[in-house]
Amino acid sequence: MGGKALPIQELYCSQADYSQVCRVTVEAIDAPTTPLIHQMSRFWLFTGGHGTITLQDRQYEVGPGTMVSVLPWQISDVVQVTEPLQYYLLTYYFDNVNMAVKALGQAGHTPLHLMEDMAAAPVVQCSSQEAQALRLLFEQLRQETVRPDGDALQELYTANKLAEVVITFLRLGRRRGQPAQKATEKSDILHYMYTHLSEKLTLSQLSRQFFLSESAISAYITQTTGLSFFDLLGEMRIGRSISFLLYTDLTMEQLAEILGFVDSSHISKVFSARLGMKASEFREVYRRVGGLCGIRDDPTAYEVVSYLYHNYARELLPQRTAERFGLSVRELNTLLLYQVEKDFSDFLNFLRINRACTLLKTTSRSVTDIAFEVGYNTVKTFNRNFLKFRGMSPSAFRQEIALQENTL
Question: Do residues 242 and 93 make contact, with C-beta atoms less than 8 angstroms apart?
Fold first, then answer.
């Protein structure tokens, strides 16, 4: 990918009704395509033909019975068509379906990591019987979403069918999904930004994550999307805003905090510039709170996440943190698994290691000093968690950063 910016898919299923949670079409491809950046999630279920696709610059063979998951701000391309490809295309709002599936999981006390699991094995090959069952699901969704007499029962039916598609895909992926390569690609930058919008993203943070200079990150974003780093953040935040406005009762102030806007007036200004109406007006026109299995977002989850973001260096214990918010430890972990796909321990260590990476890169302080500053009581615990999240020791990380900077 180079030169001309890639086209970006629209951020809604239906231009006539932004609240339509999904859309199913039957399509065909007989020649290679142009790479596309997806704002909306999608599933491909191939019913005929053979070819090769790339997803996040990783190559996969596809044919009858192949199912592919594409997540928000990932990049796909059909690079080879040996026989014309026929397929069902299911486009949907990820956040809405994520809420519905996780609500079901929480009812059974089952921790779910949808984004992580779907990204880890994005392509599965179904048996003929599995493919037939999936075709039936796709066809039921297609027929349901074109019905003109939409009501609460239609919304509930659609939500449950979408959840069934996702759960079926996850089950197949665990059995025999084609895993994504672990090596980080430049094309992962956009998806990473989308999944970390609440972290007040900066080019410096992306530089640490992808081991590239800030100028290289900025240039890649502009060359790929045609947008500056800050304009792209705005575009992503608007996409996530739609889901929250339609399906939650969170206030504009809470949404601004969650999505990384300066304040409620900022979110309204950006929203108006992109969609031609204020965010509050959009909610009044299109909202369908409760349409997805009666789900309403609880601001407590965001309050917990915010508290951990701002206090990770303190001696935090799950029991005390849970009591602070009137929760049990089990409820605390459930909220965090739902919101950030990590339990209390993993999320706290994740935040600490991210801060440690900054200090290792920007200071000459010892590993021991950094370990204590970010909240660890022993260097051994720090090293163990650094290895878990970064795949190397703190010293190796510092050396690698130094080598990269010397080659720039």
Answer: yes
